[in-house]
Amino acid sequence: VTNGITTEISTDVGAPTADDLRRRAADQGFVFELSRYAAALQAHTALRESLLRLRAVPLSFLEPIEPDSALIWLESGRVSPSSRTESGELR
Amino acid sequence: MTDLADITATELLARFAAGTATPVEAVQACLDRIDAADGDLNAVLCNLGEQALLDAEISATKWAAGTARPLEGVPFGLKDIIATEGVKTTGGSALFRDHVPGTDAALASRLKAAGGILLAKLHTFEFACGGAQNLTFGPCSNPWDISRTTGGSSSGSGAAVAAGEVTLAIGTDTGGSIRIPAAYCGITGIKATYGRVPRHGVMGLSWTLDHAGPMTRSVADAALMLGVIAGHDSRDAYSSRRPVPDYASSIGAPIEGMVIGRPVGWYTGLADDATLTGVEAAVAQFAELGARIVDVELPDVDLWEVAAWSVMYPEALSYHQAHVYDVENRDPMGAGMLAASPYVHAVDYLRAQRYRRIAQGQLAHAMQGVDVLIAPGAGSVAPTLDAISSTEDSAQWLADAVRTSIPFNYTGSPALCMPSGFADGLPTSVQLVGHPHDESTLFTLGSAFQLATDHHRARPELFIAA
Predict the structure, then answer these.
(1) Which of B93, B109, B155, B177 is catalytic?
(2) B294 touches chain A (CB under 8 A)
(3) Could you tell me the CA-to-CA distances from B386 to A61, B142, B149, B389 in Å, in that order?
(4) Catalytic status, residue B153
(5) What angle do CA B299, B305, B311 make, to 5 degrees?
(6) Using an 8 Å Cβ cutoff, are B172 and B178 in contact?
(7) Is B276 exposed, middle or buried (0-12, 13-18, 19+ CB in 10 A)?
(8) CB-CB contact of B275 with B281 (8 Å)
(9) What is the SS3 assignment for B375?
(10) Bridge partner residues of B188 (DSSP)
(11) How far apart are CA B419 and CA B184, in angstroms?
C-alpha cells in the first residue's frame, strides 16, 4: 500500500477454463466451434505465468504513465553513444 | 554477365548511371525470373509487368536526361496488404479478393515518386496473420527449399527478393513479419522505429505494434529504401514528425569502438544450435572489425512478450471484429489467433500499454553505453510447410517464431535482420536492435558486416542463371 492506494493487485484468482472462455466470448457476441476454446485456453495458459507476473508489477498512481507515454518517449528518441561525431553532430 | 535480377538496387542504380544496363532490361530480367520461378514459389499475387515495362521506358528517359530520382528504374514489390490505386489489394484474403483501392498507400506513392517501378503485389499471410497455408491463394514457398515456408507474414516479399523476382520489397512487421521471412529467405529486412514509416493505406493488425519497412538484398539497399519511405504523414496518427536522416551516408562508416551488447541468458534458450552458431560467428566478425562486445541483461524480457500479446489480441480483434462471424473460413493460424482474442481483460490491455514505457526504460538501461544489441533474427531455419499446416502446429510455430522479434515491436525499437550463414543449405540470421530513431547505427554496423562477409550475396541455386 502506497499513499493509501494498493499498487500490487492480487491476481491469483484461478486460471479460466474452456467453458469460462466460451461464456466470455458469448458475452461479447462471439460463438466459436468448441475446439477453438480449448485451443485458446492452451494459448493463454502458456502465457499465464508471465501474465501474473506482469499484473504484479507496480504501476505508479501519483506519477502515472499512460498508454501513449511509450509512443511519446519514442518520438523523443535517444541516439546511441557512437552516433555522434566529436563535434556532437549526429552521424 | 550477372543476371540483373540477382543484383542489388545499389548495384542496379550504378549500372543505370554508367549506361551498362537500362530499367527496361532490369524489369524484363525480373519478369523472366517470375516466369521461371513463380510456378514453384507463388510469391506473386498480381503481376504488373505490362505497366512496369512502360514505366521503365519513362525511367530510361530520366536517366538519359540526367533527372533520375533515388530509385529510378528499380523494380519493387509490395506485400498485398498495402493499398495501390487501381490495383487489387487482397490482404491475402477471399474477403478482399476483388478489392481495388482508390488511392495509394503513403509509402507506395513515395516509392513511385522516387522512380521505383511497381512490378508485383506479393503474397501475404491472410491479413498478415493467417499462417503459411493460404486457403485463397495457396502457400508461398521458400526459394532455398520449396518444401519449406518463407515464414511470414511478409511471405511473398521474402521469397520474391530472395529469388530475384523483384529487387526491393516492402513488408510489414507486427511481431516479426519482416524479420522472420528475411531470416528464413536469407535477405535483409529492417523494422524501423515505431512511427518512422507511415502506415497510411496498410491493412492493420495491431495499431500500436504495426510497422512497415524494407526487405532487400543488402543493408545498403535497406538504407536507400528506408530513406525514401520514412517521414511524417498526417494520415497515420502515430507517424513520427522527426526529420529523416541521410541513411545512405551511414553505409560503410567505420565501426571501430562501437559497442555491441549481447543479452546473456535470453535468446540462447529460444534458438537452435545452428542459429546460435551463426550469431556467435557474427559476434566474432564484429569484434574482428573493431567493435567491442559486452554482455548485457534484459531481466524482464519475458514480460515484454506477454505484454505484446496482451496488446495484439485485443487490437487485432478490434480490427477484425466484423470478420469473426466467418472465422472458420479464415486461414488456420489467423482463425486460431482471432478465436483466442476475446479473452484479454481491458485492465490487462491497459496495463500492457502502460508497462510498455517501463520496458523501454529497462531496455534503455540495458543499452547504456551500448550502440546495439545482437540476437538471432529468427530462432531457427525455415520449417517445412507440412510442419506448420494445422491450426495447432501453426499456433505453436507463431508463438515460438516471434520470441526473438516481438519484444522490439513492443518497445518500438528499430531492428535489422541479416543473413549470418547457412545450416544444411538454409539461411540463418542475426538481428541488431538499436536505440529509438537510430537506424543509422544499424546501417553502419550492418553494412560493415556485409562488406566483410558474403552471406547476403548467396542466391538460391535453383534460380541462378546459367
Answers:
(1) B177
(2) no
(3) 50, 13, 9, 5
(4) yes
(5) 135
(6) yes
(7) middle
(8) no
(9) strand
(10) B216
(11) 9
- Chain B, residues 90-119, CB within 8 A of chain A, namely none
Which amino acid is residue B122, in one-letter code? Answer: L
Q: What are the two backbone dihedrals, phi and then psi, of residue A27, each rounded to the nearest 5 degrees?
A: -60, -25
Cell of B208: 500500436
Which set of grid coordinates corresponds to residue A76? 523523443
Residue with grid cell 493499398, as numbered in its chain: B83
pLDDT string in tens for chain B (466-residue length): 579 999 999 999 999 999 999 999 999 999 999 999 999 999 999 999 999 999 999 999 999 999 999 999 999 999 999 999 999 999 999 999 999 999 999 999 999 999 999 999 999 999 999 999 999 999 999 999 999 999 999 999 999 999 999 999 999 999 999 999 999 999 999 999 999 999 999 999 999 999 999 999 999 999 999 999 999 999 999 999 999 999 999 999 999 999 999 999 899 899 999 999 999 999 999 999 999 999 999 989 999 999 999 999 999 999 999 999 999 999 999 999 999 999 999 999 999 999 999 999 999 999 999 999 999 999 999 999 999 988 889 999 999 999 999 999 999 999 999 999 999 999 999 999 999 999 999 999 999 999 999 999 999 986 544 4
Rounded Cα distance between B364 and B438, Å, is 13
ipTM, 2 dp: 0.92
Contact: B352, A55; criterion CB under 8 Å: no
The DSSP secondary structure of B376-410, one letter per residue, reads -SSSSSPPBTGGG-SHHHHHHHHHHHGGGTHHHHH
Q: How far is residue B183 from each of residues A21, A48, B100, B187, measured CA to CA in Å?
A: 36, 29, 31, 7
Strand boundaries in B138-221, DSSP class E: 141-142, 145-149, 168-173, 188-191, 211-216
pTM for this model (two decimals)? 0.95
Please check whether residue B448 is in contact with residue B252, taking contact to mean a CB–CB distance below 8 angstroms: yes
Across the interface, whether the CB atoms of B194 and A24 are under 8 A apart is answered no
| Distant-in-sequence, close-in-space partners of A88: CB < 8 Å, separation ≥ 6 | none
| Cell numbers for B204 | 492493420
Q: Is B390 on the interface with A (CB under 8 A)?
A: no
